[in-house]
Amino acid sequence: MSDALRPMARPRLYEQVVERLREYVAHSRLRAGDRLPAERELAQRLGVSRASVKQAVVVLEVQGLVETRHGGGSYLVRDTLDVEPVEQLVARRQRLPDVLEAREAIETKLAELAAERRTHEDLDELESALSHMRAEIESGGHGVEGDRRFHAAVTAAARSALLAEFMHSISEQITESRTESLRQPGRPHRSLRQHQAIFDAISVGDPTRAAAAMRRHVRTVAKVRLLDWDPDEDA
Question: Is the pTM here over 0.70, yes or no?
Fold first, then answer.
């Protein structure tokens, strides 16, 4: 049977609030660090409930576009609110747990093998990746490329063709999880420290310690605002 006459999706009210906020930021020429109006004021001016405004702000937080400070309001992280469509957020939220579960299983074993099989050249690559990530963070970035290079170096050091193939097969999803994690407040520095712990274990050839350090790291990656968000709260 054709689904042409399936029920039409009703736009969530908070999605409309997000779009109004995007227009407001553009027209007001707000920049990173500027404060958005208070939730109460926004609700009054837009003629919606504070719950709808709060959910809209959460969507912006999930995407790393605003930062809410306890008792101090919400501030822009970037110069614009280039908002990702909510349905894309929902889809990513649905697949992220499976990706993170796969990453923990595969990358924990890769770290263990890397500690057993690494060469001097592998250690050089890992150190180079750490230095690159550190430089990215110090210059104000999230360290995404350094993070990618580090995990690629661990995979190479493990010398397991089949596990490397598995990692390659989910590389796009891993990139999503990496980006999602590193845009969490304070996460880049924490990730760098965890990478250093993984490197230290691999460099001394301690597979048990390397596996434990990688497991802790991937479980930290799994702690993202997106997974706490309920897209239907204001449906």
Answer: yes
